[in-house]
What does this fold into?
Amino acid sequence: MANSEDQKNEQEGLLLATHPKVKRPALYNVLVHNDDYTTQELVVEILKNFFHKSDTEARHIMLTVHHKGMGVAGTYSRDIAESKVVQVTDYARTQGAPLKLTTEPA
It folds into this structure.
């Protein structure tokens, strides 16, 4: 049974959504790629400072990158993932490293 407010809105021709649906943003992985020039220490430093990984997590990801060719540094909304790629790439260049990062849908 409709309440008086619903009846009033129906009479006035108003249609109100009671629960708007909010879609979660798509998530993207930030991938770190292996190269022959970037030091393992720099990769660990980047993972700790830019991706807020613990020392253990950073070393595990760095070894994954080293052995498998790439690893996931983190998962974020698209804008944040792309910003991380730019920030880290710029930082790596200041350190003389050609570190490559990319994003892909999670």
Q: What stands out?
A: The CA atoms of residues 10 and 58 lie 59 Å apart. DSSP finds four helices and three strands in the chain. The radius of gyration is 23 Å.
